[in-house]
Amino acid sequence: MAAYKDKVIWITGASSGIGEALALDFAKRGARLILSARRESELKRVGDSTKLPELDLMLLPFDLNNTSNASALAAQVINKFGRIDILINNGGYSQRSEVMKTSEEIDRQLMEVNYFSYVNLTKAVLPYMKRQKTGHVVVISSIAGKFGFFLRSSYSAAKHALHGFFESMRLETEQFGIKTLIVCPGKVKTNVSNNAVTADGSKHNEMDPSHENAMSSEECAAEIIKGISGNKEEILIGGKEILIVYIRRFFPRLFRKIIRKQSPY
Prior knowledge:
seven-stranded parallel beta sheet, single chain
């Protein structure tokens, strides 16, 4: 618990799901938190739930669809706390639409939110971490970042891109004491499927059956914190579905047979 006492931790996508669970867990560990999300009312609810004093809590709402002001956002954090120890890039949304039915606009939005926002926020934070000679960047990817899947084309593409960018960044920044963790969750019981975008941009508005009995957000958050504490470079989190990552690596022909039989939901 003491490892995170007074650590300054910035979490995006903090208004629900994994982000909310991380915020509540870190608050119990004595961390100082910056919570970001688009929905300000939900962000306030989570902030109140942490029971942190104003001195140790900052609500910084913004839309991941536009992070052109990332440097200004990071400066606000530094103005209050003086440092940023951990950045957790968690915000984003999924997809439930076929390639041929999905517009370029939706493709670009998925990349903007799930890839470029992570890149922009991280670039804004890195100079401060370099000056501190310490820092930890956490990237919430997905097992969809390991292979493509039905109805997930641009979402999966964005997650694949995260691996390429942040694996490269790790090599360049570890000399400055900056660590990078890529987290690949499988099925977690959140609103990710409800909020997934369809071909016309509307919400899917359904909980996928495969998520109904999945791991809880709290369990996932605990595994992420364990990964941070253990200085892991990449972790897979979930149930039996994460085995498919290993099957793809070691038995690619079997993987191709299995993946074609899976339900998109």
